[in-house]
Specification:
The strands form 2 sheets. Strands 1-2 form a two-stranded antiparallel ribbon. A two-stranded antiparallel ribbon has the order 3-4. The chain starts with a helix and ends with a helix. Helix 2 (50-69) packs across helix 5 (127-163) and helix 4 runs antiparallel to helix 5 (127-163). The protein has 8 helices and 4 strands. Helix content is 55%, strand content 6%. With 242 residues, the protein is mainly alpha-helical.
């Protein structure tokens, strides 16, 4: 036991081969000669934050949105696409929010630069000038705090508007409802059965492989989560295709 406690043991959890999409997890357990077995503990691991991932995605949406909002031709194309898809996004408000957000960002950068210049000027001034610089620094800090609050609120409004804009539709897709759909290709003859056909979602629910209730609460109606063996099969097919 003492010899084992001097070593660094590695616990490897192997769930599935790597090619099936599950990677090996290694936990390093550290023990020393002076510690007892009960004092051995695993190193703290910090899981990836979902909020950090969401913030990164939101930043990408804002960056892309500000680019096409500054291009009049791109705005008209997005408007037309939204109209054809029956989307009711208020593009006038979206343009105003984009302009306000860009203005607030410029003002914040200007205030930060002035604060930096103010800080570097302290050792170059006399006593009287230092008092004035302190007052200026206090005013800059107050203005920067106010602009930061305004920018956070405007960023949320802008992001909500950008996320309501639909994706671009492929030019070959017919405009209209289901009645405008076109059959591109038919392979073989349609089979006929002497019994009523059930949807794949009904079969999945019966076999407890599909969860519609949880998915509808999170993403809206018409969607579902895969469960159990069906979820494993989907991951395996994706990995096989890749």
């Amino acid at each position: 036991l003492k010899f084992a406690m001097r070593l660094v043991s590695i616990v490897r959890v192997l769930c599935l081969p790597k090619r099936c999409g599950v990677y090996r997890v290694e936990l390093n357990w550290h023990c020393s000669e002076a510690t007892t077995e009960s004092q051995c503990s695993a190193p703290e691991t910090k899981p990836k934050s979902k909020s950090a991932t969401t913030a990164r995605l939101h930043k990408q949406v804002l960056s892309a949105g500000l680019r096409w909002l500054s291009d009049a031709e791109a705005v008209e194309a997005v408007k037309q696409n939204a109209k054809e898809r029956g989307n009711d996004t208020d593009f006038d408000k979206l343009l105003r929010d984009g302009s306000d957000f860009a203005r607030l960002r410029t003002e914040m950068l200007t205030l930060k630069y002035r604060r930096q210049v103010n800080s570097k000027s302290f050792h170059l001034q006399g006593k009287g000038e230092i008092i004035a610089l302190k007052e200026e620094r206090a005013n800059l800090a107050a203005n920067l705090k106010q602009k930061t609050t305004e920018m956070i609120e405007k960023e949320k409004e802008l992001l909500d508007g950008l996320l309501s804009v639909p994706n671009n539709t492929h030019p070959d897709v017919p405009i209209g409802g289901v009645e405008e759909s076109k059959v591109v290709y038919t392979h073989g003859a349609k089979p006929e059965f002497n019994f009523s056909i059930r949807k794949h979602s009904e079969i999945g629910i019966q076999l407890d492989l599909i969860d519609c209730n949880s998915a509808s609460n999170a993403c809206g109606s018409g969607l579902y989560y895969l469960k159990g063996a069906l979820a494993v099969l989907e991951v395996a097919l994706i990995q096989y295709a890749m």
